[in-house]
Specification:
With 502 residues, the protein is α/β, with parallel strands linked by helices. It has 20 helices and 18 strands. A 6-stranded parallel beta sheet has the order 8-11-12-13-14-15. Strand 12, helix 13 and strand 13 form a beta-alpha-beta unit. Helix 5 packs across helix 7 (160-176). It starts with a strand and ends with a helix. The model has no long low-confidence stretch (mean pLDDT 93).
Amino acid sequence: MLLIHPPVAKPGEPPAGIARLAGALRVNGLPCRVLDANLEGLLWLMEQPGPGTDTWTRRAVKGRVGHLAALRERQTYRSSDRYVRAVMDLNRLLAVAGEESGATVGLADYEQADFSPVSSADLLRAAAEPERNPFFPWFSRRLPELLDDIRVVGISLNYLSQAVTTFALIGFIRQRFPDLTVVLGGGLVTSWLRRPAWRNPFGGLVDHMIAGPGEEPLLALLGARPESRQPPLPAYDLLPLADYLSPGLVLPYSAASGCWWNRCSFCPERAEGNPYRPLPASQALDELRTLADRYRPALIHLLDNAVSPSLLRSLADTPPGAPWYGFARIDDTLADYDFCRALRRSGCVMLKLGLESGDQGVLDRLHKGIDLGMAARVLENLRLAGIAVYGYLLFGTPAEAEEDARRTLDFVVRHREAITFLNLAVFNMPAFGDEAIDHGTEPFYGGDLPLYTGFRHPRGWGRREVRRFLDREFTRHPAVAEILRRDPPLFTSNHAPFFAGG
């Protein structure tokens, strides 16, 4: 079997999904190959631009090798100017290379004229015309090298930015290797399959589509029964670990699918009915320590929607063997300063916190379960413990009005010393959540595969008004602007720990 991680996703760390699947196949005696087409394809595409006619492109072409090396060196992350230049020049190379295909390619995104990732008709056309994809010259050569003796191809489609190229890959495989079985899984596929009254428009192209964790369905599809009681470890050694664009190996690890809180209004996880499926904390910690011993990562990235309190306590008691970061909920676990100190000693260099709002009424109406007084204590505890905070704010929910957003600004300003990085997002209404009906939906964008829908804000605080507030007021406050300037461009939270001491 060949497992593929398609373009485009941030190429800073190996893909956790296909590594976990490869580990499950390996422990059950099933041979497989793994292709990080995202990393390989992006590196190939960066080599394509010629000298160019503009100064920026000429500089980027000349500095390409040095920029790639710089992003793999720790010293670069001590100089924001050097880092930003390397990232933006490499991104420029991708943008120039995609122009002829009508594509806007970047280190973190992908768009192509005439091909919408939320339209099944466009995705089917991407499969029918794979030569229009900017990665086609690369994958039309690379895939035949790997597919000669393969019976099944599995593709992990997680993001909208991967969808168009995923279907171009599938189209090429169907044209050149029509007898192969094609299996499609991943986060985006799970969202599609969990839509009410889902009808598969890709039946003539994709043989099987899998929702949620894929290990058991894939083994069943291959006619294998789990032969080992030992939980399979991700097989990261099948991937080119030295080639990712980070200063040392970043090891991604998931201890759970779904969210243990699962009560927030407008949550996509809840709208899709994704169950919370955690590994026992003791098992997760054993796996982390084994992986850290085996691969010696520079950083562990915990992928859980929110690391559970039980796993946080286990990490505090028994360090995993490498610096680490991940998402956590603001609750009384982190309100204990001594516990935050223990987390720092265990290797925690950064926590991502979904505060969403600095107004208590908004938080209550969203069922976030966050008390602002406690949030203030958590932020201060983490600051004193030496743990960086990547804060996430969400503007324009039906629970918020403009005056509430100003209270969020006041909260951030008061706690600016404890907030290291900020992510500012404008609310999108999940297309199939219960709340969408209550707030009057309207088309958000064309296509039959939307994840989100428009809505009429009950207090007139629409997307246009929100963006105007963010552009003209929120981001212009000196305290907020200083925080935003720290954010690593394009790689954002994936590289932030290296600037925070990770």
